[in-house]
Amino acid sequence: MEIWKEFVYINHGRMTQFLYLIDEEFLKLENLNYRSEYLKIIPGALSDCIWYGECNTDEIGRTQNCPYSGPSRLLNDTITIQILRDYCPHLIKEKDVSTCCDWKQLQTFKKKISVVVALVGRCPSCFRSFVGLLCDLMCHYNQSDFINVTSIVKNAKGIEYINEIDVYVDEKYMNSTYESCRQVIMPDTGQLVLDLMCGTWGSSKCNPRRFYNFIGMKSEQVPFTINFITSVKADSAYHLINPPSYPCSKPVDNTSVPCSCIDCEESCPSYSEYNNVNEDEFLILKCYLLPTAFFGMLLTVLVYKNFFVQILIKAKSTEVLENCNDPIKENEINSERNLSHNLEKSLTQFFTNIGENCALYPFKILILGGFLICCCMHGIQYISITVDPVELWTSSFSQCRVERQYFNEKFGPFYRIQQVVVTAKNLPNVIRNSSDGIREFGAVFHKQFLIDFKTLQDDILKLGGPKNGLQKICIAPLANDNENLKNSKKCFVQSVWGYFKNNLKLFERNGTNIDGSVNDYLDHITTCVQNSYNPSCFAEYGGPVDPALIFGAFLSPHETLSKSSNFMKANILVLTIVIKNHLNKTDLEPALKWELLFLDYMRNYTKNKKDTMDVSFFSERFIEDELNRESETNIPIVIISYLAMFLYIATVLGKFRFSSRILLESKIIVGFVGVLMILASVISSIGINSILGIKVTLITLEVVPFLVLAVGVDNIFILVHAFQTEKYKENESFEKHVGKILGKIGPTILLSGISESGCFFLGSLSTMPCIKAFAIYAAVSLLINFILQLTCFVSLLSLDYKRQMRNRLDVLCCFKMEVKDKPEFLLRTIFENYTSFILHQFVRPFILILFFIWLFINIFVLSRISLGFEQDIAMPSDSHILRYFNDLKNNLALGPPVYFVLTGDLDLTNVSNQNILCNGQYCEVNSVTNQIYAASRKPNKTYIAKSSTSWIDDYFAWFTSPGCCLIGSKPNEICEINDCQQCNITLQQNGRPSPNDFSMHLSQFLSQNPSLGCVKGGRAAYGNAVNYKIKQNSTEIGPYYFMTYHSVLKTSEDYYTALKEARFLADNMTKTIRSKTDTNIEVFPYSVFYIFYEQYLTIWQDSLKSILISLLTIFVIILFFTQGNLVISLITLLTVSMIVTDMMGLLYFLNIQLNALSLVNIVMSIGIAVEFCCHIISHYCKSVAKTRSCRAKEALNNVGPSVFSGITMTKFIGIFVLWFSKSEVFRIYFFQMYLGIVIIGAAHGLLFLPVLLSYLGSVPKENISDMKCSYDLVSSHIDENEEQFELKKKKEKN
């Protein structure tokens, strides 16, 4: 049974009367302390208020309430009741609404609450929970039950108003509301709302108690002090109020939605890991290399069944014991002819004719060759050197390049960055006592250090003066279009001094905190760091300063930027200046000139900097300038390297002997002119390709001469060696003798030349421009070199041969000498002993086993080769930019910005389409911006550092923010300061504008500067982010982007993985949009560095494509020239493949990254590998020895000395000089890799290949008649050759 009972008690000396509905159980209770549980307040009954109405306005416009202790009063104004219904529905429980506030208070409440709407309105659960207590404070019909007035003061007119109150609040409510609002962010800054709503504590140190203490502080928004008390005494007349509160992941009612994922982690779907990065990068690699690894073994088993038995068991090998000088018997030879033999015979005759003509008309051929070379060289005047990294590393059809072009066309080119990074040195941290206890700040916050930093900043901003200063080229986001800036004040500059408007007086101004402590520059910086969008923290240009961009070295190792990062621990200050970029080089000139002034100033400043500072700096042109300086520094090293090789070739080209014949048999002129021909072929290639419009790269200019020199010198040594060792028949004319030599050696040179040129010509199919250019220039150079050597060089050799026959000295041709001693071929003797050793039956097996073990080890480590190219390697060792790279990797907090661009036509006046993009109320959980936020939650995985800016969410907020959408008195009239009216906007039930309003006001939003009256003006942040076209009845919107930042990217792997993750995220966005709309919308990520690192996403595929094409070309050509000999062709293919595989394995062991430069060297190693193999293979096939071992021995003795002295020793001399270069690029990619190419190539060509041929080489099938004229140099005797030579000279003298 319930009864009415009047209950009276004394409240602070005032008699208060209440009417309670009392349960019977209440009457039975003796302990009145528990009776409150049974009290049910009757709304509108004789309730007691603490205030009613407004009776004071202070000097800053804050209104205070009038004391009032009477009952609540009815609200009759429907507009006022609607305000209460909108914000405080829990106070409306009856038809008649009785409150402790009048209509003026509610109007003020609505105005004040708009600030809360702007901050947390995007999260309905947080907003309703937070506002619930404010509603009870303002209008609850029984305020005196939980509010105690502690201070009433009088104004100048003697009118009393309330100045301080105590509010008794249940701690559960405070905790619940704090948790509901803890994760809400401000989308325009990416900061947590608590950075603004928790005072100096910020979000990182905030808790429920500190949160409400700051809310209750008297401020611009709070007109009196509010003390929140969470406990009451047992005999207290006050009760703890507990307004409704809601978890952020739950809706407030059936008509609302939970907070979005970006504002409430509990609302986010389960995070799915990105699976794309675990793709098997080496599937193609394994498919190619594993068969290569086992190819040798398989071939051995198939061709020679008893291979292992003969290697490991057989004590004697009949092949080795046989006499290699015994000719093959006629009945052992297949007398059948085939088409391939006819081809060889035709080639022999062709080169014989060439040789005879060269000997007959040497001067004519030399003059004609020189004339043609000069004609080709003439084209060098059209040379175009490509230094633009974009043109070097990316194909014109590459995805990143197409996306970059699209971005530049729609949004303009990415701006140019100038940065100064200043580190505090020899300074302790700043320790300060405050009301919050002892606080520690980073060393950069010393007052004098900040002032010194300002001096540096001011000097930089003044560079160039009024005419050519920064104001002419900088980005000024808040300046009017086409405004002629007179100084740099409106330039977009990010610096800690932006918090003080770059004003020393503001910096030195001190105030007093509420607790009486001094409020100085440290407090102001702390305030600004927590809320950079605080108008008092805006920089001189008129906008915010992002603390993540101006501070560094505040993160611990392996820590990433987060909402709780403590910027005040910083030990680095960063000055960032943003300059306009232009695609037109002429328009870019002023920026380049200013950047040059900046670099000169910074170089001088670092020489005279203070001891408390370490300084690094960066300019957009800095890298290109340093690369040019690096190239100039390396020119002398390259010249010395080639000169060393030239001197070696000219000196040792003659026979190796220590006798009086040295002056007669030396080949200084031949060697020198031969090297000139090699260089002429390179220059001619440049001339021809320049005429054809094919651009050259610096890599090509540095690598191609090395390649052509390696191949050309080898041919020179082989030709000279052939002239020295070929028998001179008594009745043979000189022209016939030369023709016979070239007829025998020409096909071999043709084989290697076509193999090398062919593989490089096909290598030009690569989509990577630098590889393509290198392949084309190398192929043309090798082709020209081949022609010159078989014509002009043979003519030169014939002249030198005549000179030697007449006993005329080399160089000093006018002098003669008589000699009688016979030659002693030192290198030949060494090679004969070497050949006998490696082809011994007990040595051969171990050589093969060793090489295959080497191959397996390299295959095993291939998957561990790192990709990329570290920037600091390309810079000179004394460059200032190396210090900046170090700071960038280890001390800065944010990486480069990334833009997620949406292309296509999406109707954004449609609410469902809006929900696919936004991140606020009613937005899709997997919307574009929510996906970016979800990725930012795992920056170590996704490389996304923070949530993105969202122009569409700020556009919605712009509509609901008073003072933003303003129009003139007439339709379409520009709104003047004194002639502005609020737009007549129709908001839909979800709080968004109508389709017509959304379309109509977009241009105004994007052209309006943010201001104190409207912080949501979108011009500064989104002026270039959205493309739109205004039509008669609508606005066409798109494309547009959402911007965020990558986390700090330290290595090449970080850069290309960030690109891969961004693409994966963009693909997910595309799929989401297409699944919910009937459009072909595409989302792609763009960042300025993507175009340089895209190559590493496909570097393995590109590498394998180039390698496989080259190997296939070599195989086909060798198969053709070896008379269809499949075994020999496969052996050659195996050997070259092993060289390439071992070279790639070398990258791992030397810690060299796989990139375009190392790939060029790998491709080049194929050409040199062919040179190491082809001559031995060709001579093996022509040998008439009876057994495989004898044929291998004969081939190695014939051409081994030439290969060794022509390629191996020549390159050792040139490579050794490269070690002295100061450039890390030269030491790593030229010295180390070139040395590896020579050693690996020589080891396989002069050691592995002969041994493999001794086991698997084919048996001769030539006709006996052709065999008698086969190329048999080994079986020739040196003494007999010299006797014939001397006899010929005597006849010519007579």
Oligomer: single chain
Low-confidence stretches: 1-46, 273-281, 301-322, 328-340, 1262-1285
Instruction: Label the overall shape.
Output: elongated
Rounded radius of gyration (Å): 43 Å
Strand count, sense and closure of the main sheet?
Answer: 5 strands, antiparallel
Name the average pLDDT.
Answer: 79
* Terminal-residue CA separation: 153 Å
Plain-language structure description:
Strands 14, 17, 20, 21 and 22 form a five-stranded antiparallel beta sheet that branches. A four-stranded antiparallel beta sheet has the order 27-28-24-29. Helices cover about 50% and strands about 10% of the residues. The N terminus is likely disordered. It is built from 47 helices and 29 strands. The protein is α+β, with helices and mostly antiparallel strands. The protein is elongated and about 140 Å long. A hairpin with a 2-residue loop joins β1 and β2.
SSE diagram, text form:
Blueprint: E1 2-11, E2 14-23, H1 24-28, E3 40-41, E4 51-57, E5 63-67, E6 73-74, H2 78-87, E7 98-99, H3 103-120, H4 124-139, E8 147-154, E9 160-168, H5 171-181, E10 185-186, E11 191-192, H6 194-197, H7 202-205, H8 208-215, E12 225-229, H9 283-303, H10 307-312, H11 318-321, H12 339-360, H13 362-378, E13 385-386, H14 389-393, H15 399-411, E14 416-424, E15 430-434, E16 437-441, H16 447-461, H17 465-468, E17 493-494, H18 504-508, E18 511-512, E19 518-519, H19 521-530, H20 547-550, E20 551-552, E21 572-579, H21 585-607, E22 613-619, H22 622-652, H23 662-665, H24 668-691, E23 696-697, H25 698-725, H26 734-763, H27 769-805, H28 826-838, H29 844-862, H30 871-874, H31 881-890, E24 897-903, H32 911-917, H33 928-936, H34 939-942, H35 951-960, E25 966-967, E26 981-982, H36 995-1000, H37 1002-1007, H38 1019-1022, E27 1026-1030, E28 1035-1045, H39 1052-1076, E29 1082-1086, H40 1090-1093, H41 1099-1121, H42 1126-1149, H43 1156-1182, H44 1188-1218, H45 1224-1256, H46 1264-1267, H47 1278-1293
